[in-house]
Design a protein that fits this description.
The protein has helices spanning about 20-25, 50-55; strands spanning about 5-10, 30, 35-40, 65. It has about 70 residues and is an alpha+beta fold. The strands form two sheets. It has a two-stranded antiparallel sheet. The protein has a two-stranded antiparallel ribbon with strand order 2-3. It binds iron/sulfur cluster (SF4). Iron/sulfur cluster binds near residues 19, 28 and 58.
């Protein structure tokens, strides 16, 4: 069993540079207006490693994982 964590983005910090999308395209996607869309509310055993990479890649520290 894998614990899930809630994926949160602080949109006041996000500058829509797309680095999270590059790391985890199944979870993060910039729409046609360069607005970040978070496609999964929680981590899964499948996306956890990619989401952690996205958290580490975000230069604005806008992505957080929590309960
Ligand atoms: S990496 Fe961070 S700043 Fe860039 S689009 Fe993703 S959440 Fe926004």
């Amino acid at each position: 069993m894998t614990d899930t964590m809630k994926i949160s983005v602080d949109f006041d910090r996000c500058e829509s540079n797309g680095l999270c999308q590059a790391m985890a395209p199944d979870v993060f996607e910039l729409d046609d207006d360069d607005f970040l869309v978070v496609k999964a509310e929680e981590t899964t055993s499948e996306n956890l490693a990619a989401v952690r990479q996205a958290v580490a890649a975000c230069p604005k520290a806008a992505i957080s994982l929590g309960q």
